[in-house]
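Hi all, long-time lurker, first post. I run a small reading group and we've been trying to get comfortable going from sequence to structure in the token notation. Rather than ask abstract questions, I figured I'd post a concrete chain and ask someone more experienced to write out its structure so we can walk through it together at our next meeting. Sequence below, copied exactly:
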Amino acid sequence: MSLAVHFILGFITSFLGTLTPSMLNMTTTKISLNKSKSDAVKFAVGVSIVVLFQAYVAIIFTKFLRSNPDFMQLLQEIGIVIFAVLSFYFYRQSQKEKVPTDSMTEKTGNSFEVGLLLSSLNMFSIPFYCGVTAALDVAGWLSFSQQNILGFVIGSALGTFVLLYMYAHYAKLIQLKSKGLAKNLNLILSILTGVLAFITLINIVRM
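-- Answer (accepted) --
Happy to help. Here is the structure in token form:
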């Protein structure tokens, strides 16, 4: 698999993982509305820098498990659990009537530093990337050469930045449409993560 393919995989993975309204992208929207678009972009840069490290840690962890045959089955089972939990979580979120945009406390201080902090506190990120890289590995789409790892990681960071930039740019529209947007996107992501869990399960059964 080429460097470009790994970059694209990282970009798409991160973009979809950040797509649904959550603490990070709703904070981007809030900063864009209450401060400025440039402050929101600084926040997005801070978030994306942390994603570089989170994605790298996750893929190195997956590589370690892959190089130890005794852990291979465990790796796949972890992937199933993570995707199943994410699928359930996104489904529950799609059933909620309210998106915490209006009630969110406005973040103060340097937007870049706030982005670094909130992204570091995002406990879902590393397990998410572990599950994704495990599924991609099982599907034979992931190569663990250093070059390809860097391509995937940089693509992940850029995918997050582009998505957050879109939230900053379309902040007013998102504020108006946030309720329906949250419900539809969460339902789509629930289906996607459910499908990934099923594919991973099928791969285990075939082994």
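A couple of things your group might point at:
DSSP finds eight helices and no strands in the chain.
The longest helix spans residues 171-206.
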